[in-house]
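Dear support,

Our group has been running a series of protein-ligand predictions, and this particular one with DP6 is the one our PI (initials K.S.) wants archived with full inputs and outputs. We had some confusion internally about which version of the output was final, so please treat the block below as the authoritative record. The input we submitted was:
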Amino acid sequence: MTHAIARAHPNIALVKYWGKRDASANLPATGSLSMTLDVFPTTTTVTVDPVLARDLLVLGGEERDGVPRERVERFLDLVRAASGSAAHARVETVNTVPSAAGLASSASGFAALAGAAAAAYGLDLDERGLSRLARRGSGSASRSVIPGFAVWHAGTDDETSFAEQVPAPDLAMVVTMVDCREKAVSSREAMRRTVLTSPFYPAWVSSTRQSLESALSACAAGDVERLGRIAETNALRMHAVIQACDPPLRYLSPASVEIFDRIAALRERGIGAYATADAGPNVVVLTRPEDATTVAAEIAGLAETVTAHPGPGLQVLERVPR
Ligand code: DP6
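Confirmed final output from the archive:
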């Protein structure tokens, strides 16, 4: 038996990934840009055990069956194909982020799984290889392999679609916990529905390509205001393209909208703060580290908050035998 332990953190996109050009290789329609957080790590242990008849998934101490286990098994199939092993594995995952609440647990989850599985099955992958592998589990996981700010290049095939680090200004994110219950529609299903039914989808794709270019140049120039404005606009455009789906779908709650309004009001008072939200009601506010306390105070009363800074990339903590 070989086992390996890896840890990864969630990331929050400033320019979002929403829609695939190829579902089987998990290639996105556009590139995206994110910050990996220093809070809410996921730690995953993969134990390769030739005696097992199928892969086992233990999530937060509870054995899970159904879709989550099948997703892990399909992912491990890729690792087995690359390593030439037929053995199954036991996967134990501990999330510290509320699962499936639009706080990117699939990003940290599949990044940690990619690191632990690659190590346990003896694959020797560099950062790019790990990012490509994590992408196959969940697109946004490709970016959680990378420390700090990451651009995920859309690419045209499996080899060219990976994330890498980009320089960025000093920033913090105030994460609000509006509602951490499991969401009714997964981002995977919602993305599929958007591509198939939202009449605004082509405009989303073309505007996101432009936003990514502008955001990367704002990052390089250290221009927090421009980066923040692009991030907030891009997030609202993503929620708009989602809200135009059939059957209808909406992730933002009244409390989320209230937070967007409060952040706009803070800007009127001269504080550089910009709101974004993934596929869930929990708003995340981008700001300078020195303004994070002011932002958190503005939201207190509406939701609990946690302040995050740029965090580490994927770490393999242990491999036995080495
Ligand atoms: C709204 O990465 O969860 O968080 O590739 O189907 O697993 P799959 O989707 P996933 O989608 C994340 C969408 C998002 C935006 C983002 O992180 O860029």
